[in-house]
Amino acid sequence: MARMSRRQYQERQEQTAQKQTRQTNPNSVPRLDTDGASRSDQKVRLNFWQIFADRPYVTVIMISLALFCILAKWWIGLAIIIILTIAGIFVIGRSHHPNRVLSLEFKLKASRKLSMIKALQLLGSNIMFLAAYMRQIVSVDFSSAGATDSLTVIQNMLSNQGTFGQQGSYFLNLFNQLTGGSLWGIYRYATNSSQMMNSTAGTMIILWIFLLMIAPAFCVLSQFFREPYSRHVMTVASLISTISFALTPTLMNRWVISYAVENQMSQAAAENAVQVGGMVYPAIISAIFVFILAIYREIKKDEF
After folding, report:
1. Are 138 and 248 in contact (CB under 8 A)?
2. Residue 97 needs a FRET pair 20 to 30 A away by CA distance; which of 15, 26, 65, 139 works?
3. How do beta strands 138-140 and 100-103 pair?
4. How far apart are the first and last CA of the chain?
5. 79 and 140 share a domain?
6. What local confidence, expressed as pLDDT, does residue 5 receive?
7. Is residue 18 a part of any domain in this protein?
8. What percent of the chain has pLDDT over 90?
């Protein structure tokens, strides 16, 4: 008998061991999974919130765009956003998770929980910032407040410069109408604000409006800072936002009366010039909500 190599000997031993195992365990032959087909036909639940939890910032962008459309009263854009959201949920649920049924569940993992909290803070911050930036918190009618519009001054100067000046004044008026009265909006707002700041009460009103935009802006920007600075800045900025938005109705009422006295105006005229918008109360709720989440993150130190 020829001498076997080590490899052939190992193969012979493995075959012998397999034969012995089959003889001792005759029932160990693998059988077909007859329940596989029935289990594959059963539909597993898909967490409805998982679609949003996996894409928190996309969700916040969609909600912020919807809020922008509501503040701008652009209902067609709002309808487009709602249709796109429904279509996105349908596509994700069908293509990425076939054979699953959408369900409402609120169980989130630790990483998803932190992402969801950050996304909710970003949403509340966007609500505050957009409401303040679009003058839905405090709106000022500078013409009623006694300020002279710089565009009107330029149009009057051009009207006195002959035929070409009158044509230039006409085109400026036309462009202003096409842009919804916001031609040179930033420059006109700055010049009108500087005229209103000639009085103490007017200065406080303008600075307070500036604060209402700056504090939520830091809440938004803090999302892009490094930890733990992001968490700390969010806490401080949300606290300032909560205090400033909560005090806005009371302080504006007091400053409007002072502005009327300083500029020798009637109180009714001053109230028409400076008005507190209806979005102040949703902004207060959003500020409190963001601040509570910031305190919760500080207590947990983002360890969920």
Report:
1. yes
2. 65
3. unpaired
4. 70
5. no
6. 61
7. no
8. 12
Region of 301 on the Ramachandran plot (φ > 0 left; ψ -120 to 50 alpha; else beta): left
Distances (CA, A) of 37 to 34, 40, 41, 116: 7, 5, 6, 37
Q: Which conformational region is residue 9 in: left (phi greater than 0), alpha (psi within -120 to 50 degrees), or beta?
A: alpha
For residue 93, the model assigns a pLDDT of 65
CA nearest to 183, candidates 194, 173, 195: 173
pLDDT at 229: 85
In angstroms, the CA 37 to CA 186 distance is 66
Residue 33 has what DSSP assignment?
-
Residues 67 and 139 placed together within one structural domain of the fold: no
277 part of a folded domain: yes
- CB contact set of 241 (below 8 Å; sequence gap of 6+): 128, 215, 216, 219, 287, 290, 291
In the chain, how many domains are there?
2
- Looking at 25-55, list the stretches that DSSP marks H as alpha helix, in order from N- to C-terminal side: 36-41, 48-53
Domain housing 46: 42-107
Q: Sign of torsion, CA 234 239 244 246?
A: positive
At 251 the pLDDT is: 92
Separation between Cα atoms, residue 167 and residue 214, nearest integer Å = 40
CA angle 27, 31, 35 (to 5 degrees): 130
Predicted pLDDT at 151: 66
Per-residue tokens: 141: 């009618």
Residue ranges, the chain, pLDDT below 70: 1-11, 13, 17-54, 56-57, 93-112, 146-151, 153, 155-156, 158, 164, 175-189, 304
What amino acid occupies position 231? Answer: R
pLDDT for the residue 52? 66
Helices (H), 179-228: 185-196, 200-221
Query: What is the per-residue pLDDT for 287?
Result: 92
CA atoms within 13 A on the CB side of 76: 0
